[in-house]
């Protein structure tokens, strides 16, 4: 089977480099639609050293730390993962603002740079290394009946599919879903880019299907 190789995939001894697994504790920043009684119960459980019950948790952070932190609690238990990773566009999301006759450049804040930047120091190689490490950790989170959907575009489709086949196995590729956009395209010099792709893989021989 074909294999993608990038700088850092193997160590100096030719062994596959493992993803960074630094598990950090989560900190609750805000709880939405929680009654005073539920809040007090969660606090009591927390102070007693027990994990408070939760659902619909929204976690804000770098996947490098979030995914390993989830493994202790959810390894082999997740049924479904959907990811919409960056598309390696090279954008840093700064933009120009014009006020009267004066023009300003809105630079992204430190938080915005970390959360939304799509620039990669070593170009495609560093992007593929980042994606590979993420997928390995997500595979460990999935249960035997779990599956994963990966949203990508025409530029990265072939690369990401090879990595997914390497991690999950080519036999576990269930489908390549074409998502066609409906808005108009004005580029008359070539074929319009009117669709994205969602790659659908399973973890084991069976998977949960909910139509």
What's the CATH H-level superfamily name of the domain at 36-88 and 123-202? Vaccinia Virus protein VP39
On the 0-100 scale, what is the average pLDDT?
Answer: 80
Which strand order spans the largest sheet, edge to edge or round the barrel? 1-4-6-5
CATH architecture descriptor name of the domain at 36-88 and 123-202: 3-Layer(aba) Sandwich
End-to-end C-alpha gap: 32 Å
Q: Uncertain segments of ≥5 residues (pLDDT<50)?
A: none
Number of strands: 6
- Cα shape: globular
Number of helical segments with 4 or more residues: 5
Largest sheet: 4 strands, mixed
Oligomer: single chain
Task: Please tell me how large the radius of gyration is.
Answer: 21 Å
Q: Give the DSSP E fraction (strand runs of 2 or more residues).
A: 15-25%
Helix content: 25-40%
Taken in chain order, the helices and strands follow as: HHEEEHHEHEE
Q: Indicate the CATH class of the domain at 36-88 and 123-202.
A: Alpha Beta
Structural class: alpha+beta
Report on the structure:
This protein is of the alpha+beta class and 211 residues long. It has a domain at 36-88 and 123-202: 3-Layer(aba) Sandwich (Rossmann fold). The chain contains five helices and six strands; from the N terminus they run H-H-E-E-E-H-H-E-H-E-E. It has a four-stranded mixed sheet with strand order 1-4-6-5. Helix 2 runs parallel beside helix 4 and helix 4 packs parallel to helix 5. The longest helix has 18 residues, at 124-141. The protein starts with 35 loop residues before the first helix and ends in a 9-residue tail after the last strand. The model has no long low-confidence stretch (mean pLDDT 80).
């Amino acid at each position: 089977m074909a294999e993608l190789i990038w700088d850092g995939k193997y160590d100096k001894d030719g062994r596959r480099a493992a993803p960074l697994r630094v598990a950090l504790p989560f900190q609750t920043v805000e709880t939405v639609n929680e009654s005073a009684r539920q809040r007090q119960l969660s606090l009591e459980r927390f102070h007693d050293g027990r994990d408070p019950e939760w659902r619909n948790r929204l976690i804000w952070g770098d996947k490098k730390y979030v995914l390993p932190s989830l493994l202790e609690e959810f390894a082999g238990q997740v049924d479904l993962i959907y990811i919409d990773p960056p598309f390696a566009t090279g954008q840093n999301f700064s933009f120009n603002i014009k006020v009267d006759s004066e023009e300003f450049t809105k630079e992204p804040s430190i938080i915005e740079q970390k959360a939304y930047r799509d620039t990669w120091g070593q170009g495609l190689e560093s992007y593929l290394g980042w994606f590979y490490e993420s997928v390995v950790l997500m595979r460990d989170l999935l249960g035997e009946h779990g599956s994963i959907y990966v949203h990508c575009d025409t530029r990265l489709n072939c690369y990401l599919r090879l990595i997914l086949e390497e991690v999950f196995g080519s036999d576990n590729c269930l489908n390549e879903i074409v998502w066609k956009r409906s808005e108009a395209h004005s580029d008359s010099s070539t074929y319009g880019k009117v669709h994205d792709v969602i790659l659908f893989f399973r973890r084991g021989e069976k998977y949960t299907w909910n139509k």
